[in-house]
Write a structure and sequence with these properties.
alpha/beta; Glutaredoxin; 5-stranded mixed beta sheet; 17% strand
Amino acid sequence: MRSIPGMAVFQKRLELVANIAIIVVAVILGYVLVKQFVFPAPAAQPGPMKQPQAGATVTLPDTDFSTSEKTLILAIKKGCHFCSESAPFYQKLAQLAPEKGVRLIAAFPHSVEEGQGYLKELNVPVTELKQADFAALSVGGTPTLILTDKNGQVQKYWVGKLPAEKETEVINSLQ
């Protein structure tokens, strides 16, 4: 078999291009692997938990805040173990709030019926219960207590299962 003179030159050039392509792919693959496993990107840190801000106006469906000088919103949800563990404190709030002229509203992200059942389980007698969008209330975690004035403006708020001194602070804020 005779080789065609131009064919040998073409084969050498094709071989050179193929070798260069293999080297480029190997370098890119090496870069990706080193970046992925030797210098991994830091894990994304969650942003700050959404919380009510003092002075912000609370929006709660079908609620006229002007009917009381102060309103305490108890934002809880079924399945929250901190909410369940805080039941004795909420029982105390349910008793003290009306005595101090403070309106107590329980807000739930699920149906009113589920909320009523959960409050009954906890033995927390609340006369007002609302289904609420927690994002609209700026509630990022449960339980959250929000104390508002008669204009629905946030005066104070507390997030999470409260230690004894914070529970006392909530009670004193009802004055």
